[in-house]
Design brief:
By secondary structure, the chain is mostly beta strands. It has one helix spanning 101-105; strands at 8-10, 14-18, 27-35, 41-55, 61-68, 74-78, 92-97, 110-120, 126-133, 139-141, 143-144, 152-153. Strands 1, 2, 3, 7 and 10 form a 5-stranded mixed beta sheet that branches.
Amino acid sequence: MIFFKPKFEIVPLIAKNNSPFDNIDQICYSFKIINKSLFGAYNIEARTNYYYIIQGENGIINKIFSRIELKTDTINYIPGYIPFKKNYGHNCIQFFTYEDLPKKMQYSPTHIQFQITARHSLTGLNNIFTHEFVNKAAIREGKFKEGNFKEILQC
């Protein structure tokens, strides 16, 4: 059954650039995901949160979450990955936010959690993918390279 669940990769970088939308002149931050499954996925839902860790009196660690608002947080469908096809990027999606992420992360215990939930187009099985950005070094100036690449190009 593991072969019939969606397979996504969350790029471990956050791109800081100008808004890609025509009528908005503002700095935005983008998260990129890549569908690595040979099949498409649908009902893709992204959630982004700040969280910080506090330790309780008994030594147990608690995470306190606060939501980060995304420009778009749901996508209906993402096509599957086509191996060995160089000029193909339909399986890659970016999610944008206008919140000042580095400002919030300047306080050392604050981290960012990015989570994707997706449903496999053939079987309907769900899968959840999570990446935690634990310091500001993950935020880089530039924009993501198009396609199945995990790098940020300088603007």
